[in-house]
TrEMBL record, chain A:
The lineage of its organism: Bacteria, Bacillati, Bacillota, Bacilli, Bacillales. The keyword Amino-acid biosynthesis does not apply. Keywords: Cell membrane, Membrane, Transmembrane, Transmembrane helix. It is found in: Cell membrane. It comes from the Bacteria. GO terms for cellular component: plasma membrane. InterPro entries: ABC_transp_permease. The keyword Cell membrane applies. This is ABC transporter permease. It is a multi-pass membrane protein. Pfam families: BPD_transp_2. The chain crosses the membrane at residues 9-28, 48-66, 73-93, 99-119, 131-150, 162-190, 220-239, 251-268, 275-297, 303-323. It comes from Paenibacillus amylolyticus.
């Protein structure tokens, strides 16, 4: 039973998340406390879920892309563009607070992120450019587009409806959590209850072989990039609505690295062919918890990256079978001579 | 005979560089000169050195994200030791080179022995090196040491009134060394074999562990050397130097015709790949009127047009992995 549990792909990521949470509990005992204020729950755990929502969304999209053997470096730029477009169109409106304006802005942002996803997907599947380079184009140009939309400034909006997406709450929980749950549910159902997941894994193992087996590899690849773009677009909306402003320069900066990290911590291999959506969610939560922890224990900002490096390495080492085996062997070797010595002494 | 089919991507890339330079010459006065061409080398010497280390890593089937941070770490260690502690450059430069190589060795060993994906290990390396930069100093350290300033200002005259810097000589020596290493030594062949299939390389009895670790060591050494060259170029140490350079480097390697899946690639291609990125930058600086965000958009567009042309012209045959 225990062995079976340890073989499960979520075992080590969950252990790591548990370790981080226990560390936080020891460091500040009221870490797990939840306070009910004005009908909403508040607390560190809720904060982690709320602030982690955009990262989880982006990581879910990234998981499917990586499952096809690709990678999407442009997610950070799409996050920035989506937020910039939404805030720009709201700030141009006559009555900033109107619901129609906000819906129009949402539609525009989502539509644009779908188009950007199609662009990435077309470069990879139709033009057959290596994914890392194909998406690098949008990563560089997209940041420029976001800055162009905002003219390099931070655009602030005051639209209560828009602010609800990232800062509002539903049933005592932040609304963004429900968006994440919906996307996660849709993605899980589509990939695990239909053949789509199998198609994606097959294309990730060998695109040409799956083409010969009758799977439309190109369509599958195009679809995952569009989905990834959509996830990044929604993440951008949440991020910008949370602070009611869009920053073309810094929004979503380095998101691609965090998202890829989350996917890999979750047990998905960068070689493609297999993916774990729940693993990714746990991975993203680990990263968000780590970030919160680093802020909370007051590590000087300049040491933050060093701490992050060691934790990332620790997470991956613990997940590595070879590392655990070599540690076990060392442990046994360490004990063996001592026992022998004792025996010899007695006889 | 010379136009072997397998060299086609490199020739196409080179042809496109020539076309790009020709377009620049017709469009801007003063563009067509030896010095503009040599400036490509002067301004990108550090990128050439880094990209060569990266070529070996990518050919072996791995990736190294730590290069930019190692460059920054090298500049800041050199600057603080030379300026604040008053050490001699004769000690500092070999020391940072050894440090860079060791950094690579450790990453390579972790990647190989614990079977963790290179992307993650080198990402951790990137965080670590960048973090150490900030621990050492948050501010720019300007270098006034006479050795550094002399090397920085030295101009090696060429016939026709043009000149190159010492950095260019270092970079060209490394290029020649790397071409020899990749195509004429046992080590080079092992790297290609491992990139083709690590399993087969192991079954053939090739020293997989040693080669893989050496590849990362070489990349670390190249990054440290690039850092030294960068110190000569900027005459300062700063934790924000070379931000995002790892992606420029990977782009240069891939533009040069190396496959990210490993096993295929040319050092000479990488060299041209760097020059192409430099040419794009030069054309933009000759255009002169672009705001910083338009620059990014134009770089993206040019990258796109270039890669598409390269893709269409070389028409690489479709292998089982080429869809990725």
């Amino acid at each position: 039973m225990a062995g079976k549990m340890r073989k499960h792909h979520l075992f080590w990521p969950l252990c790591m998340l548990g370790l981080l949470l226990i560390f936080n509990l020891l460091y500040s005992p009221d870490f797990f406390s939840l306070v009910m204020r004005e009908g909403n729950l508040y607390g560190s755990l809720i904060d982690i879920l709320n602030f982690g929502a955009p990262l989880i969304l982006v990581s879910i999209g990234m998981t499917l892309v990586i499952a096809t053997g690709g990678i999407d470096l442009s997610v950070g730029s799409i996050v920035a563009i989506s937020g910039a477009v939404a805030c720009m169109s709201i700030s141009r409106g006559v009555d900033q607070n109107s619901l129609g304006l906000m819906l129009g802005a949402l539609g525009l942002s989502i539509g644009l992120s779908l188009i950007l996803g199609i662009w990435n997907g077309a470069l990879v599947s139709v033009a057959r450019i290596q994914p890392i380079i194909a998406t690098l184009i949008l990563m560089v140009a997209g940041r420029g587009i976001a800055q162009l939309i905002t003219s390099g400034q931070i655009i602030t909006v005051s639209n209560a409806n828009y602010a609800y997406i990232g800062a509002g709450s539903l049933a005592a929980l932040p609304f963004s959590i429900f968006i994440v749950l919906t996307v996660l549910l849709v993605a899980s159902l589509l990939t695990r209850k239909t053949a789509l997941g199998l198609f994606i894994e097959s294309v990730g193992s060998n695109a040409n072989a799956s083409q010969l087996a009758g799977i439309r590899s190109k369509t599958v690849i195009l679809t995952v990039y569009v989905f990834c773009g959509l996830c990044a677009g929604i993440a951008g909306l949440i991020l910008s609505s949370n602070v009611s402003s869009a920053d073309g320069n810094n929004a979503g900066l380095w998101y691609e690295l965090d998202a890829i990290l989350a996917v890999v911590i979750g047990g998905t291999s960068l070689n493609g062919g297999r993916f774990y959506l729940m693993g990714t969610v746990v991975g993203a939560l680990i990263i968000q918890t780590l970030t919160t922890t680093i802020y909370m224990i007051g590590v000087p900002p300049e040491v933050t990256l060093v701490v992050k490096a060691f934790v990332v390495l620790a997470v991956c080492l613990i997940q590595s079978d070879s590392f655990r085996n070599s540690m076990v062997i060392r442990w046994k070797k360490r004990k063996f001579p001592a026992e022998q010595g004792v025996n010899r002494h007695v006889s | 005979m010379f136009l072997n089919r397998k060299y086609l991507p490199v020739f196409v890339t080179f042809g496109l560089l020539a076309v790009m330079f020709a377009i620049g010459s017709f469009r801007y006065t003063g563009f067509f000169s030896t010095q503009v061409l040599l400036n490509l080398l002067i301004d990108n010497a550090f990128l050439i050195i880094t990209a060569i280390g990266m070529t070996f890593v990518i050919v072996s089937g791995g990736i190294d994200l730590s290069v930019g941070s190692v460059i920054a770490l090298t500049t800041i260690i050199s600057a603080s030791l030379v300026e604040k502690q008053g050490w001699s450059p004769a000690i500092v430069i070999p020391m940072v080179l050894v440090m860079g190589a060791l950094f690579g060795t450790v990453m390579g060993a972790i990647i190989h022995y614990f079977k963790i994906q290179p992307f993650i290990v080198t990402l951790a390396g990137m965080f670590l090196a960048r973090g150490l930069c900030y621990v050492i100093s948050l501010d720019t350290i300007t270098i006034t040491n006479p050795f550094y300033t002399q090397v920085a200002q030295a101009k090696i005259s060429l016939p026709g009134g043009s000149f190159v810097s010492i950095n260019v000589i270092i970079a060209l020596v490394i290029v020649l060394l790397a071409i020899f290493l990749a195509h004429y030594t046992r080590f080079g062949r092992n790297v290609y074999a491992i990139g083709g299939s690590e399993q087969s390389a192991l079954l053939m009895g090739l020293p997989v562990a040693r080669t893989k670790i050496l590849v990362y060591t070489f990349s670390g050494l190249c990054s440290a050397l690039a850092g030294v060259v960068f110190t000569f170029y900027m005459l300062s140490g700063y934790g924000l130097h070379a931000m995002g350079l790892e992606l420029d480097t990977i782009a240069a390697v891939v533009i040069g015709g190396t496959l990210l899946t490993g096993g295929v690639g040319y050092v000479a291609g990488t060299f041209i790949g760097v020059l192409i990125q430099g040419a794009i930058q030069t054309i933009i600086s000759f255009e002169g009127t672009l705001s910083s965000w338009w620059t990014k958009i134009v770089i993206g567009l040019m990258l796109f047009v270039f890669i598409l042309f390269q893709r269409l012209l070389s028409g690489r045959r479709v292998s089982s992995k080429s869809l990725h």
